[in-house]
Design brief:
about 400 residues; alpha/beta; Alpha-Beta Plaits; Rossmann fold; 3 domains; 4-stranded antiparallel beta sheet; 15 helices; 15 strands
C-alpha cells in the first residue's frame, strides 16, 4: 500500500543538498509528485511531495532522511498527506491563475500585507512570491533604485474588475504601483510595444517647447494641461496650440530635438525588448520631426505622428494630413499589429494622456505612465513610481536577465 508524504527540508544552503536527498529517495523507487525550492539570504527551504510505493519501508526511509539531514546540518519534517486531499489538490489545477506585480523604490511589509489582504479577501490563494528586482545596497544611495515582487495567485475571482480596483486602491496611500494580469500564454509572449512620445518617451511636451521659442509658452501650456486632463477635445486643443506657432523658424526644431530629455529607463527598456525580438514604435499626437529623431536614436521600427506644415523655412501653424488623435492612435495600433501578423493580445501600449486611452484600452497590456489622475483611473495598468524600464517587470523579466 502506498503512502503520500510531504518532506520539508530547511537550513543553510550549500551545493549538493537536492542531489543527496533525491538520490536517497531514488533507492526506494519514490515518485516525486510536486517539488518547490527557494533560497532566501542563503537559507534553503525545499519541499517535496512524494509517493512511497510500499508504506512498509516508510519508517526506514524516514530514518535514512533524518541521518542525511544531520550530515548536511539541515532540518527535515514529515507530514502525511491523505489520498483524498491529494486528489482534491489535483482537481484544483485547472483553476484560473493571475499575476500581481508590486513595484516601487522600496517595498515595506505594509505594502506586501496590503496586497496579500486584498487577495485573501477575494478568496484567492497565493501560490508563490518571487523577487524580480536585483539586490540593492542599504549603504549606497541610489535615487533610481527599483524593488519588485511578483505574486502568483490562483482561484476563481468572482469579480475580477473589483479585485483589480481593490489592488489599485493600494497605490493611493502607498508609494507603490500594483499591476494585475491573467497568467496566460499572451502575457509571456508580447511582440509589439508602442509609446506615446510627449511626457512618455521624453520628459516634456514638445509643443510646449516650440511655443516657448515662439513666445506663446504660457498660452499653449494652459491649453495642453486642459487637454491632457480631458477637458478639451484633442483636435480642438491641438489646432489652437499649433496656430500659435505660425511663423516660427524651422531651425528651432533641430535644437529642440537635440535637447529632448529622455525619460528614465527608456533606453534600458527599448534595448532589452529589441533583444527579445519585440517590434518597437511611436504612436504620437506630436510631430514626426521629433519622433523620427527618436526612431534613429533608438533604432525603432515604426513611427506615426503629425507632420508639421513648413513653407519657406517657417511653420505655418498647421499640419499636413489627418490629425493623429486618440481614435487614430488605436486605429494605427490595430494596423501595425495586423501588418506584422501579431495578435492584439500580444501588444503593449504606453502613454500618459487622455488621448492615449483608446490605444491603452485595446492593447493586450495598456500602461498609463506617470499619467494624470483621470487617465490613471481609466487605464487597466499604471506606473507612477518608477521609470519606463519597470514595464519589464510586468512581463515577468528579472533584473538579472537584462542588459544594462
Amino acid at each position: 500500500m502506498r503512502e503520500l508524504l510531504l518532506l520539508t527540508i530547511s537550513g543553510n544552503d550549500h551545493p549538493g543538498v537536492t542531489a543527496a536527498f533525491t538520490a536517497a529517495l531514488a533507492l526506494h523507487e519514490v515518485a516525486v509528485l510536486d517539488i518547490g525550492q527557494a533560497v532566501i539570504h542563503q537559507r534553503l527551504n525545499l519541499g517535496l511531495l512524494i509517493e512511497i510505493p510500499d508504506a512498509a519501508v516508510s519508517a526506514a526511509l524516514k530514518k535514512e532522511l533524518l541521518l542525511l539531514a544531520h550530515d548536511h546540518e539541515l532540518g527535515v519534517n514529515f507530514s502525511g498527506i491523505a489520498e483524498d486531499d491529494y486528489e482534491h489538490w489535483v482537481a484544483s489545477q485547472g483553476r484560473p491563475r493571475y499575476i500581481v506585480t508590486l513595484l516601487g523604490r522600496k517595498l515595506s511589509a505594509s505594502n506586501i500585507s496590503h496586497v496579500a489582504a486584498v487577495v485573501a479577501r477575494h478568496g484567492l490563494n497565493i501560490d508563490a512570491i518571487t523577487r524580480l528586482s536585483g539586490r540593492f545596497s542599504l549603504r549606497t544611495p541610489n535615487p533610481h533604485r527599483r524593488a519588485c515582487v511578483e505574486f502568483s495567485i490562483r482561484g476563481e475571482a468572482t469579480n475580477p474588475e473589483l479585485l483589480r480596483h481593490d489592488l489599485l486602491a493600494i497605490t493611493r496611500d502607498d508609494e507603490v504601483d500594483v499591476a494585475f494580469q491573467a497568467d496566460d500564454l499572451f502575457r509571456r509572449n508580447r511582440r509589439l510595444i508602442v509609446f506615446d512620445m510627449d511626457s512618455t518617451l521624453v520628459q516634456c511636451e514638445v509643443i510646449d517647447e516650440l511655443a516657448k521659442a515662439a513666445g506663446s509658452g504660457a498660452q499653449v501650456a494652459a491649453i495642453t494641461e486642459a487637454a491632457m486632463r480631458g477637458e478639451i477635445p484633442f483636435n480642438e486643443s491641438f489646432e489652437r496650440r499649433l496656430a500659435t506657432l505660425a511663423g516660427l523658424d524651422e531651425a528651432v526644431l533641430a535644437q529642440i530635438a537635440r535637447d529632448l530629455p529622455i525619460t528614465e529607463g527608456a533606453e534600458r527598456l527599448i534595448a532589452n525588448l529589441k533583444r527579445l525580438g519585440y517590434k518597437v514604435g511611436i504612436l504620437s499626437g506630436g510631430f514626426t520631426y521629433f519622433a523620427d529623431h527618436l526612431k534613429q536614436r533608438f533604432g525603432l521600427d515604426c513611427v506615426s505622428a503629425n507632420q508639421l506644415d513648413i513653407i519657406d523655412g517657417r511653420l505655418t501653424g498647421r499640419v499636413r494630413g489627418e490629425i493623429v488623435n486618440g481614435e487614430k492612435k488605436a486605429e494605427l495600433l490595430r494596423g501595425m499589429a495586423a501588418q506584422l501578423g501579431i495578435d492584439m493580445r500580444q501588444t503593449i501600449a504606453v502613454g500618459d494622456g487622455a488621448n492615449d486611452l483608446p490605444m491603452l484600452a485595446i492593447a493586450g497590456l495598456g500602461v498609463a505612465f506617470h499619467a494624470k489622475p483621470l487617465v490613471r483611473e481609466s487605464a487597466r495598468h499604471s506606473i507612477s513610481t518608477l521609470g519606463l524600464d519597470s514595464i519589464l517587470y510586468l512581463l515577468g523579466v528579472r533584473d538579472r536577465e537584462v542588459i544594462e
